[in-house]
Predict the structure.
Amino acid sequence: MEWTGARYADKPTVEVSTWIQASADRVWSIVSDIGRMPEMSTELQSVEWLDGATGPRLGGKFVGRSRHESLGEWSTTSQVVEFEPQRVFAWAVGDVTHPSAIWRFRLSPKDGGTELAEWMQMGPGRSGLSEAIDRMPDKEQKIVFVRLREFERNIAQTLAQIKKMAEA
């Protein structure tokens, strides 16, 4: 059977959500504090606002340093592309018009708590994954599939930790 997964140029996405027994304000205070994200991630090692910023705002930039056993270590600069307090916080990695990824948290009031979804899109801009695809173009769909599953697991872990913090 032939592999029929997504290609990187398709800008594949993954989304995971959870319900949190806490107000959107409480959940927002955690998801919008990018300095806390490395403690919830196996990949992200550190994050720092740039240009004198001390918190999120539309157009704000930050640098993230990451590490992955197969991809090595790297740093990226991201820019906040959506910012609506207590509702949505999203950033594009690399070039805003041609990002290597887009990440988004979306908060919605639900059943006396908050539904929190984390979504990410790969591509279309080049990333470390592009180098792996360049080396093994015949395995592109499998590479993309495996990386999406990694992101899905990591997002689920991040949301579980945000839930735990918000409900504490």
Observations:
- The radius of gyration is 16 Å.
- The chain has one domain: 8-167.
